[in-house]
Design a protein that fits this description.
GMP Synthetase, Chain A, domain 3
Amino acid sequence: MSATANTKELQDLALRVRELREIAGFTEEEMAEKTEVSLEDYRCYEAAEKDIPFTFIHKCALAFGVDMSDLIEGHSAKLSSYTVTRKGQGVETAKEDGIEIQNLAPLFRKKIAEPYYVNYEYRSDLQDKPIHLTKHSGQEFDFVIKGKLKVQIGDNIEILSEGDSVYYNSSTPHGMIAVEGEDCFFLAVVLPGADQRETEIRDTLIPSKLSKKKLICSKFIETEVNDKGALEKISFKNEDRFNFAFDIVDEIAKADPEKLAMIHLDKNKVERRFTFQDMKRSSAQCANYFKALGVGEGDKVMVVLKRHYQFWFAILGLHKLGAIAIPATSQLQAHDFKYRFNAAGVKAIICTAEDNVPDCVDEVEDSCPTLQTKIVIGGENREGWHNFDDEFAMYSAHFYRTEETPCGDDPMLMFFTSGTTGYPKIAVHSYKYALGHFITAKYWHGVSSNGLHFTISDTGWGKALWGKLYGQWLCEGAVFTYDFNRFDAADILPLFAQYKITTFCAPPTMLRLMVKEDISKYDFSSVIHMTTAGEALNPEVYRQFEKATGLQIMEGFGQTELTLAIGNLLGGTHKIGSMGKPTPLYDIELLTKEGKPAGLGDSGEICVRTSEKIPCGLFKGYYNDEEETQKVWHDGYYHTGDLAWKDEDGFYWYVGRADDVIKSSGYRIGPFEIESVIMELPYVLECGVSAAPDPVRGQVVKASIVLVNGKEGTPELVKEIQDYVKVKTAPYKYPRIVEFRKSLPKTVNGKIQRSQL
């Protein structure tokens, strides 16, 4: 749209733009960037060689910090109390291509908003064409006076009729046309301001690269992607006969025996490399070994092996044998083992000799009648225990599948949930669970068949199977494992360059520690993609990682009971701080307490619709606990217990566990938003927000904070933190209680236990 009526006006406007640019000290290149046009177009506008669009003038005014009237009229507005603009007497700022725009307050100086009366002529030739989109910093409000307006904001399209209005972030690409055969008249109010980077839709992510060769898993998985590699649909076939160990690991070994499956470093950084043939043979030996010890189909076997390479041998062997694997952490104490042995009916345990695990088992063995077989890895021989290292290698490296071999809907895994209150429940997964992680690895982690993926996690919790086994080997990629005892960012960060790691996933807790270590000192050039899950990622951690490495960390959401249900997938767009959008595998609905769909911007419980189909990856229920299963799975939905809200672009934003929401003076406050704000402060290492009882307000916000080394918690610092939160959020959300602590209580998988703050 042109802002000029004749050549003289065009030349004068161009001259004013040039003058202000020179005064501001901006180069032509800088102004082209600020106005979001090509350098060639910018030079043409400044030289008055082509008509100047209205949006260009608006962006120039923002860049120079002047009113639109300064540029268009050549003089500043004078009025500062009020101004009246009579009908039809606004100053024309654009008239071209069937669009007329009048400024309704041209004489008012230092406006905080620009009001316009706009007429869009109905044009039949535009009806079947893509709407031309533009963007600028700030916000905009449009109110339809007459006619109908088709508005596109990002990927969303709305039809507005007389009396309808829309308010939006104008840094999001937007445009509009008149529809239904008549001109449209509307009021537009433009409010300048800085881009809201945290909510701005980012550019397309790294396209998902299609494998040149046909993957082994294509016998079971079919996908549909768009031209950017973004996953649009996934379906499964032959899944009722699927057994990961036989159908994926063994088949890859047959097709390419020497293909790298894993690089493993022990705690002393001794390196081992395992091929898929190694995994095939060693898992067969384990299956034969366990069978010889009396373990059979359906028996429960607890696996407590930290990050020892033998974990992969053992769990694949159990899959082949048909026994049910129960991964667990070495941090469990004697009473924890007792509860788990009896709750699950554990028949055998294979565990590390480290962290006093055998001692804990021996202490409670007499109270666990189902426990019959104990196998230890590492350490000295122990009475009553089988020594894995001495015995397993004696068994045959061939273990054959039969018609009776468990597969499909048969139980394969049990996970004890990491609940923060009460006894953990036991989520049961079938053999189909592994198939659900194809999306996790290929379209979220970005795993390729020639890459090396590193997920930091202990094999004792579910995230290890998200990132260290199923999905990665479905993609025929290799995994990197470092069997450290204690997480040390300075110890781990050099490994990325040394081993040319290509994709990386870690929980936000560890990413925060990496940021505090100054990641800019380390070489991340081999890494092409990063992801995080386990808890919500603070935007400040995202920004610091991006600044230091150029990498954008993609969030995802799932549970012990699920695979990746919501995520920022390859080939799509994302927003900083958002969990992303539901994956094609899960039909997600946000439900209110009343069981009704939550509106845009309203918090609701993340629920999976199961009335029509149960997705591959969703658990079968809680073992021997129909009552608890019914509490979360009823009326055609699985209820996650996690709260989120959905924005107008379909992105989901994490609020917190339903039990974590703080109810203060009639307000409902999600802890994560406050944690994210506090984490922006450079002296904060960790932060957990929880509810504290209050006789007047019911509850108040409490912030438990771990400071960086050298920073002291003082009353002055408390006030500084409180004031910062008041400015960055609604004032009622600020923490009335601030407590400085040396550490925060966490679950074994690194999640903050707010109930213990």
